[in-house]
Give the backbone structure.
Amino acid sequence: MTSIASGPPGNGHASVPRPYRSRSNASGVKARHLRAHVLVVGWLCLALLAVAAQESLPVARWQAVHMFLLGAVTTAILIWSEHFAVALLHAKIPDERWSTARLATANLAVAGLLIGVWTALPVLTAVSAALLVAAATAHLVVLVRLGRGALGGRLKPVVSYYRAATAALMAGAVLGWLLATGGVGGPDRYAGLRLAHIHVTLLGWIGLPVLGTLFMLWPTVLGVRMEDRTTNVSRWVLWFTGSGLLVAVAALALGWRWPAAAGLALYVEGAALAVNLLVRTVRGNRPVCAAAAWMLAAATSWLLTAVAADLAWLVTRPLAAAQNGIDALLPVLLIGFVAQILIGALTYLLPVVLSSGPKDRAAVRALLERGWPARTLALNTGVALAALPLPGPAATTGMLLAALAGASFVALAVPVLVRSGRGLPSEARAAAASRRPVLWGTAAGAVLTVLAVLVANSGGDTGDPAVASAAGGGAATATRTVNVTLADMRIRPARIEVAAGTALRLKVTNDDAQRHDLKVEDGPATPMLAKGDTRVLDLGEVTENREAWCTLPGHKAAGMTMDIVVKGGDTAKDSSGHEGHASAADNDDAGPDLAADYSTGWRPRDADLAPAPGGTVHKVELHAAHTTVEVTPGVKQQMWTFGGTAPGPTLHGKVGDVFEITLVNDDHGMGHGIDFHAGSLAPDRPMRTIQPGERLVYRFRAEKAGAWLYHCSTAPMLQHIGNGMYGAIVIDPPGLARVDHEYVLVSSELYLGTPGSTAQVTKMRQNTPDAWVFNGMANQYAKEPLKVKAGERARFWVVAAGPGDGIAFHLVGTVFDTVYKEGAYLLKPGDPGGAQVLDLAPAQGGFVETTFPEAGHYAFVDHDMRHAEAGAHGMVEVSD
C-alpha cells in the first residue's frame, strides 16, 4: 500500500508521494535519509573547498566538478530515485541493508576514482570504475524488479527515466575510465569521447531523472493539480530525450558530428515538450513553496538554454571546436542547472522527509528558505557572468557569486541535518548507530580523497628558483631557457636535450583553448593556465633525465608529455602515457617490408601534372585534417593532411596568376596554418595558425616561375611537415614547351608511428626516418610504374619536401637534356652537355626532361642509395 505525504492544503493538489510505513519503520527511513543527505552535504563541502583551491592546486577544478557530480549529485539521485520509484509504482520497499550497501559502494567507488585519476594509478582507477558500474547495475536491477508485479500509478512512466539514467551512469563511468587511462586511440579520438562522456553524464545520468521527477515535483511544489496530459507527455519526453541521447552519445564517441547533432536535436525537442507542460501547469497559479519553485524553474530554463546552445555549437563547429562550446556551457549546466535543481529540490524535500510533523516541517522549511531571493539572484547572476563572453574579472566574479550562494545553502542545511539527527527516536538512533561503519567508511573515503590530492600536490612548487637550485644540487655551469607550448593535446617540444649540469628554465605558454598546466617530475609545476597565460619554471641544475606532463586527468595518458634528456646519460624515460598509442613501427628497427604487397583496393597516387586551369584567378579550398592512409606496403598510418592526402594537392598556374586558397581547419584539437613559398607577402596574418573550425583565406600572386613547396606553418613545423602537411605548386616558366607527359614527384621522409609520440619525434630529431618516399608512399611506382611510349618526351617536376633531407633525382638509362632548378635553366635542348642528376636541398624544386629511346623499364631513384633502398625509387615502363 501507499499513502500520500502531507502536502499543501487544497483539495486535489498534488503532493510528493512516499511509501506507506508504520511508525516503527518511519523513523528508520528518516535515519537513512539523514545519513544519505549528510553525504550529499559532505561532498558539496569538499567540492566548495576544491573550488576555493583551484588556483593553487592545478587539478582542483576537475576534482571539484567530480566531487559535486559523482559525489553529491550521484548520492542524491541514488537515494531519491529509489524512494520515488517505490512510491510511484506502489511497490514493496527494498531491503534497507542492500540499499545502504549500494549507496556506500557507489561513494567508495567515487572516492577511489578521484584518488586513482589524480595520482595516476590506472589499476585503482579501473577497479573503482568497475565498482561504480557494479553499484549502478545493482541499482538498475532494483528499479527493474520494483516494476514487476507492482500496481503502478499515473506516473509509472517516470520510473523509466530512472532506469535509463542508470544505464547512462554506467556508460559515463566506462567513457570516463577510457579518458582517464588514455584508452581513447590518440588525440584525434579524445574530443569525441570527451564530448560523449560529458553528454551522457550531464544529460543522461542527471538530466533524465530531473526531467522525469519534475512531472511530479513541479505541481507538488506549486501546490496545484497535475495536468491531465502529464502521463502521455512524460512518455513522449522520454522517447525524444532517451533516443536522442543514445544517438548523440554513440555518434560523438565515433566522431560523427551530424548524427550527433541530430540526436541532440531530439533531446532538445523532448526538453522543450517538458518545459511547455511545466509552463502550462503554472499558469494562473501561485506557488506554495516559492523558493523551491523559482529555483526549479530557473534550473530548467538553464538546461533548455544550454542544450540549445550546445546543439548550435555542434552544428556549426567540428568536434574539437564543439569541446570549447561545451566547456563554455559547463557553468550553465553544472551550476545553473544541476546545482540549482539540487538546492531547489532539497529545499522542498528535506522538510518533508526529516521533519516529524506540520509544525516541525514549517520550521525546517523556514530555515532552509532563509534569504532565498538573494541567494537565487546571486547564483543565477553568477552563472550568467561566468557563461557570457565577458572579460576575466566578470567570470571570476560570477564564479564567486555562485560559490557563495552554494555555500550559504550548505550553511543552512548542516543545522537542519544536525537537528534532525538529535530528534530521532531512540530506536532510530540505534538503527543509525548500527550502520555507522558504512557511513563513516564512506566519509573516510571522501576525506582520504582530499588528503590524497593535497599530498600529491605537495611534491612541487610553482617555480621558486631557490628551491629548484637546491633540488639540482648546486650552482649550474650554464643557463638555458626553452620556450614550451601547450596545445592540441601535445607539449612542444616533446623532447629537450641538455648538457649535464645545465640550469634549465622553461617558459611555458598555453596556446590552447583548453586549460593546461605543466608538472615536472620531482620538480616545480605551473598553475592551471588559460589560453595565452605564461609561467616560468626554474628547474635548477639538471643532472638526470626527467619527465614533464599536463596533470589534467587523461591528458598525460593521451600523450601530453615531454622528456628532458641529459646528453650522454640514459635514454629518456618512456612514460606510461605513450603505452598503447604507438604503432608497432615505432620501435621496429628493421623498418617496413617494402617488398610486401599493398592492401587490396590500394591505388597509387596519380603523378600526372594536370593542366593549369583556365583564367588568371585560381580558387582552392584545402581542409586540414587527420587522415589514415597506406604509406608502405601493408602499413597504414595516421597522417596530418591538406585535402586528405600527403602530400596535399598539386596546384598549377602561370606567372601572374592569382591563387586564393581557403584553408579550413577540420582537425580535432589541433591548430594549423599554411605557407606558400611561391607567394611574396608579409606572413603575419596569412600564415597564422587557425584553430579547429576556423577558416583563413590566403591570397597571393605568383610573380615568379618555379616548382615551389607549400607546408603547414604551425610550430613545430618539423612534426607538421614530417607527418604529411606539405605539397607542391608548379608555376610554368613563360614559353614552356609542350611535352608528351608531365609528372610531379614530391620527395619526403616517412616517419612511422603515432604522430607526435615521443618515439616518432625522436626519429625526426635524429633524422632517422623509416623510409624515403615519392608522393607520400614508399615503393608505389615500383608496384605501379609510370607508363610512356618509346620516343615520347617526359618532364619530371621534382620538389624536395624534407623535412630534413634533399634529393638527387636520377633516371636510370637516360640522360637529361633539360635541367631547370630554382627558377633558372641550367641546361636546355641543343646544348652540347647533358645532365644525370637534379640535386635539390630541402624545400627546393625544379624539373628535368628526357626522351625515352626504346621500350624497356627505366628506374628513377634518389641517388643517395640509402634513400633509394628505403623506398625512394620507382619505374617508368616504356612500350613500343
The two ends are 97 Å apart (CA to CA). The longest helix spans residues 187-222. The first strand starts at residue 2 and ends at 4.
